[in-house]
UniProtKB/TrEMBL annotation:
Matches recorded under InterPro entries: KDG_KDGal_kin_Halo (IPR054871), PfkB_Carbo_kinase (IPR050306), PfkB_dom (IPR011611), Ribo/fructo_kinase (IPR002139), Ribokinase-like (IPR029056)
Species: Natronomonas aquatica
GO molecular function, one term: kinase activity
Signal peptide (from-to): none
Protein name: Sugar kinase
Alphabetically ordered keywords of this record: Kinase, Transferase
Carbohydrate kinase PfkB domain segment(s): 1-294
Family: Belongs to the carbohydrate kinase PfkB family.
Length: 319
């Protein structure tokens, strides 16, 4: 049994050197990346027993994914497919005024046909926390049904369910996301959402703390975290609001920063920490991730502890 179980797609990431265009690049850097596996890696590197559930092609490309995750301490629980393909994504790295561009090649990837019966249900029913995100149900109708069933199975068993909205406009429109996510919300205990996503999908306005309060009131989450990039995060838990500023950092690669935040937060909560301390741990993990190339938060507990309050009192501010 793992303390943290995540479910979703992991792709192979191929990126150009900074300044190169995809149409002219002669070399691409090969790594892996996927929101739920990124969360699992961050938590595992911080000492949490973590498992990642998914469906992959039984091929060298699929095995490339699992080998990488194992190297960071994550236990992959995989339903292997004979004929489906491995999802890819390409990053064209750029500097201002040109923007970094992401190109997905994930249609008909193995994960899109995953069913609940492809996995041992005890993986989610015996976990402390089950996590997935809004990218996963956006990939296919089948996967939306599987995500819903796994969340409900976990919650019914007493497993804490955590979910990051992680909206991607290339996958679905705001109305489509609103309809699908609203159906999942009753099975979610802990919601993480970027402020911009909440405004885009649900039309909430006002201050971030007002948004967190409204989400909690409208949907009955146990914990709501509204992330704000360089402005930090706001959380509502047990009727209280907590504010966590972001840590200053020099960015090498921002991809996966939000996943690192979630991984650090969940790791600390699983350890029994209060929400303010877990927020601080998540913010520190996110800051450190930005100094690392690739999607994965290749950090250690000592890295994070050196960044947070040395007294261990936490910087979460009750409002």
């Amino acid at each position: 049994m793992s303390d943290l179980v995540t479910f979703g797609e992991t792709m192979l990431r191929l990126s150009t050197p900074v300044g190169e265009r995809l149409e002219t690049a002669r070399e691409l850097d090969l790594r892996i990346g996927g929101a739920e596996s990124n969360v699992a890696v961050a938590a595992a590197r911080l000492g949490t027993d973590a498992t990642w559930l998914s469906k992959l092609p039984d091929s060298p490309l699929g095995r490339r994914v699992t080998g990488e995750l194992r190297s960071h301490g994550v236990d992959p629980e995989i339903h292997w497919a004979d004929s489906d393909r491995q999802g890819l994504y390409f990053i064209e790295r750029a500097s201002p005024p040109r923007e970094t561009n992401v190109v997905y090649d994930r249609s008909d990837a193995a994960i899109t046909t995953a069913r609940p019966d492809d996995f041992d249900r005890s993986a989610v029913t015996d976990a402390s926390v089950f996590f997935t995100c809004g990218i996963t149900p956006a990939l296919s109708d089948r996967l939306a049904e599987t995500t819903d069933e796994l969340l409900r199975t976990a919650q019914k068993a007493g497993t804490t369910t955590a979910f990051d909205i992680n909206y991607r406009s290339k996958l679905w429109s705001p109305p489509e996301a609103r309809e699908q996510l609203s159906g999942l919300f009753p099975a979610i205990d802990v919601l993480v959402a970027a402020e911009r996503d909440i405004r885009t999908i649900f039309g909430y306005d006002g201050r971030p703390n007002d948004i967190a309060t409204a989400l909690n009131s409208d949907f009955g989450f146990r914990t709501v975290i509204v992330t704000r990039g360089k402005e930090g995060a706001i959380a509502r838990h047990d009727g209280r609001l907590f504010e966590q500023p972001a840590f200053e950092t020099e960015t090498v690669d921002s991809v996966g920063t939000g996943d690192a935040f979630v991984g650090g937060f969940l790791s600390k909560r699983i350890d029994g920490a209060a929400v303010p301390e877990a927020l601080e741990y998540g913010a520190a993990t996110a800051a450190l991730k930005q100094t690392v190339e690739g999607d994965l938060a290749v950090v250690t507990p000592s890295d994070v502890e050196k960044l947070v309050d040395p007294e261990g009192s936490g910087s979460g501010i009750q409002r």
